[in-house]
Write the structure tokens for this entry.
Amino acid sequence: MQPSVAVIMGSASDRDVVAPAVAVLDEFGVARQWRVLSAHRTPDATATFVRQAEAEGVRVFLCAAGGAAHLPGVVAALTVRPVIGLPVRGASLGGLDSLLSIVQMPPGVPVATVGVDAARNAGLLAVAILALGDEELDARLRQFRARQAERVLSSGQDLEHPATGGARG
Amino acid sequence: MQPSVAVIMGSASDRDVVAPAVAVLDEFGVARQWRVLSAHRTPDATATFVRQAEAEGVRVFLCAAGGAAHLPGVVAALTVRPVIGLPVRGASLGGLDSLLSIVQMPPGVPVATVGVDAARNAGLLAVAILALGDEELDARLRQFRARQAERVLSSGQDLEHPATGGARG
Amino acid sequence: MQPSVAVIMGSASDRDVVAPAVAVLDEFGVARQWRVLSAHRTPDATATFVRQAEAEGVRVFLCAAGGAAHLPGVVAALTVRPVIGLPVRGASLGGLDSLLSIVQMPPGVPVATVGVDAARNAGLLAVAILALGDEELDARLRQFRARQAERVLSSGQDLEHPATGGARG
Amino acid sequence: MQPSVAVIMGSASDRDVVAPAVAVLDEFGVARQWRVLSAHRTPDATATFVRQAEAEGVRVFLCAAGGAAHLPGVVAALTVRPVIGLPVRGASLGGLDSLLSIVQMPPGVPVATVGVDAARNAGLLAVAILALGDEELDARLRQFRARQAERVLSSGQDLEHPATGGARG
Amino acid sequence: MQPSVAVIMGSASDRDVVAPAVAVLDEFGVARQWRVLSAHRTPDATATFVRQAEAEGVRVFLCAAGGAAHLPGVVAALTVRPVIGLPVRGASLGGLDSLLSIVQMPPGVPVATVGVDAARNAGLLAVAILALGDEELDARLRQFRARQAERVLSSGQDLEHPATGGARG
Amino acid sequence: MQPSVAVIMGSASDRDVVAPAVAVLDEFGVARQWRVLSAHRTPDATATFVRQAEAEGVRVFLCAAGGAAHLPGVVAALTVRPVIGLPVRGASLGGLDSLLSIVQMPPGVPVATVGVDAARNAGLLAVAILALGDEELDARLRQFRARQAERVLSSGQDLEHPATGGARG
Amino acid sequence: MQPSVAVIMGSASDRDVVAPAVAVLDEFGVARQWRVLSAHRTPDATATFVRQAEAEGVRVFLCAAGGAAHLPGVVAALTVRPVIGLPVRGASLGGLDSLLSIVQMPPGVPVATVGVDAARNAGLLAVAILALGDEELDARLRQFRARQAERVLSSGQDLEHPATGGARG
Amino acid sequence: MQPSVAVIMGSASDRDVVAPAVAVLDEFGVARQWRVLSAHRTPDATATFVRQAEAEGVRVFLCAAGGAAHLPGVVAALTVRPVIGLPVRGASLGGLDSLLSIVQMPPGVPVATVGVDAARNAGLLAVAILALGDEELDARLRQFRARQAERVLSSGQDLEHPATGGARG
């Protein structure tokens, strides 16, 4: 099956941060591939991959990078497909550098940015975009939301336990 | 024709900032509507509108807000459709408040965030998402990109003018 | 006894950060309840709870959230009761994101914001508000302040110990 | 009539920023007084005023200051009444200095902080606190919220005008 | 001997951060005392101490505090003596909150601010101020500077070791 | 008369920002000189001046600079006299760059930093330091503080005017 | 004459900010060219230009961009020649976004970054690099530095004028 | 062999952060020396070293410093050679202080700044500058870039392993 989503990260060291995005796609049964491609260290391979991927049917690009995080923007320059940018927090500056490097794109080439290290949300955004043209995926997304709401509500049950919380007075 | 995109802003005072997003949608021939709805001042009207809009076929929500900019996240909580968040700069803090209030969403409910006051990019992101299922729109987006590249390149012609720039030495 | 304060947190993972707020309320004998409700993952349950809680006599809402921390603002949109917002620090950005997401509310719907992770102060602010209409609570608050001053002053006694501090020369 | 709210600002130059807070109190018929008192330039007058004001029945203190904005915290140290802190933006640092100087209070002495230059919200927060013990004020606050919602919704009517906005396509 | 410097910290928990300031004063033979006094939790004891200390001959106040760090400014409001402010880093915001809360004082009441957690420099600044009127102290400060320069230069000797650094090529 | 204070600024363009510091010294009758000397563009002239000034009896250096504001630190490296650092706000970054460049000095060489553009406070800090060894100056400083308190209190009189403020209700 | 420096800006709207860099190169007689090329809107033209420019003898690239400023990094990925990055301040965030987007490059591909809007310094850095292999340019740079020092020193003459500054007392 | 690069750090405690810069120079066979010299604690030794080093043929200065990081700027004031500034992250403020203290140099004296703790890039920038006049070094730099690209691409191979990543669907 052709991948619908290409997950690209700027460095193999970001793998653990990016993994939840891939896990979400797998949970939803979205065909995907993931690659390490650097906007700065492998500019030609990046351009070749993005153009070929678009030609072969990739519909959403999900790009993670840290620091002066150019990968999402560089990919967005090479394709008209929606590009999701995932800022990765580095050792300094708390992720503000990667967030601003991704979100503040110039007019004409947007990147759909999610929160710092928010890989799970990056995956879910890809799902939401693809669900526009896929009724089954749309149904799965609605079920996911409902289950998620249940999990939040049930997670508060323990608080009601006399020893730890709940109504008192 | 049914609107494909609902543009919502938290305050009528944001209208001029948001207008380029609407202009982009119009340029691309994307049916849209725009509304002033406040996550905080009209929570019920917001919920009613979002749910009805989704039911009636809105495919992308584009939400602009400033300060503690909750509107995009609140809308994202009410729909499974992709929500684009447009941070609006206020008088203080340079727009950092609205950017962080929009992009740093908790796991489970993503918002596709664009740059501060980047209304044009918000509109283009909506177009890119819709173009996945609309060949004509896809073609227009490719033409737009090509024309945009030409405009950038021609904008540099003046620099070459002897009096102001160009190769010298 | 009817709870006077509803403590709501956006995620069960914030429980340890929020616990000191609940502990303060218990120390002062203020009836309270606490719940996990997410502005984004359980918007309907949040609205239902807040409106019912206000109807049943809750006088102050104390809401804790991190990241794009919308919970306090969303609750404030649903009630005229005072809402105390407690920003919770996440892994990135040092809590600046949650602080700005809570404090920078638009005109018309204020949130009484305390410091990042300042759960104890959130609880004390609720006590101070309730003490306006409760003489016994007012007296307890005055005693608390007096004891607190004594504790600060006595905590400096060790500094005077020859080995570690005190006047020298 | 005894003032219920004391509005204090650190410098007469902040008067225009603070005025909307006073205007809100007047709109709601809340008795108030306002004073210029500086935590740093008039520490004794500040202490004298706060203690006397509390003794004479002031129920809420609303304190505005910029820069290293100590006034709200200094007042909070002198009274058990709720203190609302209003950060005023200065020429540099976009108001971040006054916001952090007010909101990041140490454990034991909270300040209920509103947004930078958010005088109107400071006034509304005072109203919400006082409305807990005043049914008439509570009713006025509910009416205010309802009218506010109407104003937001009607402010969007113009957008629907063919020339400028509304559904198209 | 009368203390020349009063070292005041807002919380006993800041003791380890402040200790190097006291150590510097002891190294230089400057008589000093140190106290825990909180601008917010013990406002009266703070005022009493500062006024009495000034009356008894304290010439420099060195005040350490974190978060909304008001102590240095509050002390500066109570004395005409030079006040040195030492910002202490808290768990969130990297010390920016305490730095801004101390340094951005309003016109009329300055605080001589040093770097975040820079207790040693706070002590040295007190020494430099006192040395203006004390030739022996002035001589000791010059010796300290000379020894410090030697230590820096000799600390680089290891780099020259073949295995780890030095000139190569 | 020998100058007691040397006021140095990194660029003649900072003159208007620095002028209030000089004005304060003149008001207090403190002998001073001011110079334009750049840590980066005139390093030798800076070193020569500072060493000669110290030798000739300058007791306090007051140094203003913007951007990567090295002047105060560079001067502090050349003298044991107290150095007051005055951060000047530039067009970008709101003065945060100059503030951090001045205040975050390494251990061993402190700079007494005041707020961004806070020239008046820089002058007053110099006065407070010099007043330690000058009873007349000390008296003038106390008078200044008293007059300042009066000015603040009287500045609030207008607020009490029926049309604009004061107690109502 | 072959250009030694290629000045590239991401948008023609940055022309006035970039012009001082070109002016410096002209003052020093360094052959240069300047172009508008966007990393995002004209990725192919950018790559073609950079590779051809390097082949034709360009020795230093000077790249200016604002917002998510990728141009310097993208150029650095395409050439081994030194790339100077000039961050341009946008309407929001005070230039912090462009600074971080340029300076925080990943390991392996450096960009020599200068200050926000510091076009003159960008030009001077290019001159300093080229002067390493050009004795005449080296001599001119030394003359420039000497004249610059004189200008700074003479700019302070006015201060000495009795009416406005100079030694007094 | 004469060193081409002088690596200077402000404190021996920065040695581990700086070491990768020296390692890069060694990998490329660039003759270098490294020294501990403090702009603030050893201003004279710094000036003597820089001027002598330039006279003896050092072509690039690479300076690392943290906090109010003046070393690179101070060195740049003493030489016309290119100066590379390496900001070192301290315990507070995430390195923003050292970055701004280095990059925001005043007009006339640039510093070529790299990212926070980006020692490897500082070394590579020195190599790129020196390679302009050294064909062998230029060749080595091109080989390095090619090998680096290969390493990035091969680092992504593991992702393709069925258990952990790769195309699926």
About this structure: Chain E has six helices and five strands.
